[in-house]
Amino acid sequence: MIEGMADNPVVAQGHGYLQRKDAHLKRLRRIEGQARGLQRMVEEEQYCIDILTQVSAMTKALQAVSLELLEEHLSHCVVDAARSSDEAGRAKVDEAMGAIARLLR
Predict the structure, then answer these.
(1) Which domains, ranges and CATH numbers included, belong to the chain?
(2) CA dist., res. 51 & res. 45, Å (int)
(3) Per-residue pLDDT at 6 exceeds 80
């Protein structure tokens, strides 16, 4: 464990996504396959619209993973931090808001 993390009960318990880690990895591997498929489509000089359709599908898949991770972060990490202290809760909310802002850009 990284120094200082054992002092933080939220970190010491693990991340919210760990209960569904295998499902997330399965989805990410599928997305990785989609990325390889896109590379192959470009190498084979396939039709632009077909490639864009696959890019859209991959984007939606990444967004779905992002939303699941965000929900898990809010319901686990943020809630646990808020139970710990108002200051820790506020810090986790701020962190989550930053992540949400990055996802929406």
Answers:
(1) 20-104 (1.20.58.1000)
(2) 9
(3) no
